[in-house]
Amino acid sequence: MASIKDVAELAGVSITTVSRVLNSRGYIGSETRQKVEKAMEQLDYHPNQIARALLKNQSYLIGVIVPDLSHPLFSELINWIEAYANERNYKILVCNSLQDSDKEANYISMLRQNRVDGIIMCSHSLEIESYLKVSMPIVSFDRIISSSISYVAGDNYKGGEIATKHLIENGCRNLLHISGPLKYDLLPNRRSDAFQLTCMKNNIQFSIIEGAHIKAAFQDNWDFIEQVISPQLENYDGVFCSNDIMAYTLYVYATRNGIKVPEQLKIIGYDYHSFTRLMQHPKLTTVRQPLDRIGKALCSALIDQIENKNPDFVNNTVIDVELIRGDTT
Amino acid sequence: MASIKDVAELAGVSITTVSRVLNSRGYIGSETRQKVEKAMEQLDYHPNQIARALLKNQSYLIGVIVPDLSHPLFSELINWIEAYANERNYKILVCNSLQDSDKEANYISMLRQNRVDGIIMCSHSLEIESYLKVSMPIVSFDRIISSSISYVAGDNYKGGEIATKHLIENGCRNLLHISGPLKYDLLPNRRSDAFQLTCMKNNIQFSIIEGAHIKAAFQDNWDFIEQVISPQLENYDGVFCSNDIMAYTLYVYATRNGIKVPEQLKIIGYDYHSFTRLMQHPKLTTVRQPLDRIGKALCSALIDQIENKNPDFVNNTVIDVELIRGDTT
């Protein structure tokens, strides 16, 4: 691989001059600049970013930790994070925590060893100690790690409220909410808070059942519904599911068991990720989280922190959500 | 952040000793090792992998270039690549080429600048010049870049053959194949070759229509079917689609237009990724590409090349595929 010395020799200039061209520093005549650029092209020279990172103490690398790379919510989010990071000249290192806090701690250590400039944390594991010890910019998705760490979230409270109101306005009087795992201190729990309060304000009977499932596998969701939800499903005329895959599975379960959706049971989901948008039967009624805007906000918040070199700057962002009307309500 | 000097001071040893512990080099007594390890833990010291990468000329970074991170095929593939890379202590930098060859060339340059140890190329763009110039290990997915670059692929010929035979065995006599974009020199084109030959051997009428769509968006596929396929759809009693999203969209199009699937029209797809596995209505008949094994093979082939330091070692891998019987045939 060509070195900076080779470039300098071919261009007939000093190494310092090549370095100045690379770093756009100091005065360089346009003729000299062209000679250097031509030599770099001829030699197919690529400046060593690792050496530059070491020198400048900035790697332009961002670590992104997610619970499941193949889940449609996270793959779409990563897609947008990558796009915006790339616009600002950052690269992303993706880490799949698989909900395992030991694996996650190892990833954090690896990211620190690789001197990433910051971390976007989209994980749902219980253990957050490791993040509190990290002395670099972090932004979290849908989670408050500490008051000194910025977060980006969809408006979970509003999402829970519009979903519940929609069911009530469409005539439901006995509501069930299948929540996310409430033991984790996650912002999506506010969907449950909103569900509960909206039911109480409207004198609606309700229950909340905790679903621990993040896995985007049909059978896992099916088994949960069969074992936990099905024995009491006849008590309800409306269900608000905290994610679309659960909502879809519930729809399939209900129709296979002779329950008409939406006539006898109304179902609303949450997310509106690529799976929900692709799937046409049924078109789910759901709450859209704008993953493009969330991805952009995560990137902006993190890179602004990195570039201001001020890790104490906290800037929480809550992104609006909207109701998507489908066939299941 | 603690430095190696801080660790040496706290442990009461020289920097060289700490370095020996880190690199497991030279004789170190167990007591000294414990003192150093304890000091690293107390100071929350993380060795600078960037400095080590520069020194050792190995970064333990792998670049992965895909056309669309949010596509269920590629998100699942990346999920497995990340898992196997992590097992062997490598990290992955993901790059979303969005089918744009300029963007892809920039990514390759960026990966070279960041001194990744190798590249996994899953892209479908026309331009492969940039890859030929790269003097580092590369493994490609479903594509022959050159005779000196290893590839991993599902058995595309067999996949095309079992799909076509399945349609014929189920009584189809006029077959259509909606292929991938044939202008790219991709291994999935062998699905079309197998389709064609199998039809000819069995005296079956057939046509091939090129679908240029990689986008996992329902509307794009719908528009293509409405404009290109629909005018001649009545000529066929069986369609082999080169991907599941096209097959699913065709199913929806047919049923909305009064064509009964599978009675009047049999449809078979390709991939069996997370979308297909989640979706229950219909259960698609399709060909499963084992993305776990493909991801593992891509990682193994690349890391073996990296660690043998022999970029000329070519090791192509073809992974078996299987028919998944669903409701659409």
Low-confidence stretches of chain A: none
CATH architecture of the largest domain in chain A, please? 3-Layer(aba) Sandwich
Based on DSSP secondary structure assignment, what is the total number of beta strands of chain A?
A: 12
Q: Which protein chains make the most extensive interface, counting residues with beta carbons within 8 Å of the other chain's beta carbons?
A: A-B, 50 and 50 residues
- Straight-line distance between termini of chain A: 62 Å
The SS-based structural class of chain A is alpha/beta
CATH class of the largest domain in chain A: Alpha Beta
Q: Note the main sheet of chain A.
A: 6 strands, parallel
Radius of gyration of chain A: 25 Å
Q: Oligomeric state of the chains?
A: homodimer
- CATH-assigned homologous superfamily of the largest domain in chain A: Response regulator
- Beta-strand level of the residues of chain A, as a percent range? 15-25%
Work out the helix count of chain A.
13
Question: Share of helix among residues of chain A?
Answer: 40-55%
Mean pLDDT of chain A: 90
The SSE order of chain A reads HHHHEHEHEHEEHEHEHEHEHEHEE
Q: If strands are numbered along the chain, what order do they take across the biggest sheet of chain A?
A: 2-1-3-4-5-11
Tell me the CATH topology of the largest domain in chain A: Rossmann fold
Broad shape of chain A: elongated
Number of domains of chain A: 3
Keywords (chains A, B): DNA-binding, Repressor, Transcription, Transcription regulation
GO molecular function, one term (chains A, B): DNA binding
InterPro entries (chains A, B): HTH_LacI (IPR000843), LacI/GalR-like_sensor (IPR046335), Lambda_DNA-bd_dom_sf (IPR010982), Peripla_BP_I (IPR028082)
Pfam families (chains A, B): LacI (PF00356), Peripla_BP_3 (PF13377)
